[in-house]
Amino acid sequence: MLHINSKNIEKEMIQFIQNWFDMIAEGKIDEACNKLDKPNCYGIKWTPEKIQDIIKDEFGLKTIFGHDHPDGVYFSAVKSTEGNYRADALKFDDGSGYSVEHDVPLNGKWSDLTAQFEFIGTMPVFDIILHDLHVL
Known about the structure:
By secondary structure, the chain is α+β, with helices and mostly antiparallel strands. The protein contains 4 helices and 5 strands. It has helices at 9-25, 29-34, 48-59, 64-68, and strands spanning 2-3, 87-91, 97-106, 109-122, 125-135. Strands 1-5-4-3-2 form a 5-stranded antiparallel beta sheet.
């Protein structure tokens, strides 16, 4: 759960996501997965293996990215990632929460992999759901 104590809800949600990326970059992928409160609407419970499988499928050795990075793909710390990221927050019309899409930092750069989170609830407490990881 995310407890938001300021009036800048979207900024705190984006900060949570960036901290989540940093956990994975630090090798704490289990801890990052444990921060997710519920499966997504398709019933997917995000595990370290599931996240690693998606990364491997989208950026593995048989891809252009994999060819350019023969040492493999890894999550990067947000502050050390080059370039600009895209993070878009949208409040649901029904008032049930927010959706936030955020570029994922990989191999020191902002990638075209997008993490789509949902924050379900009302102030000050939101359940955290990783809806999807996908390439746009």
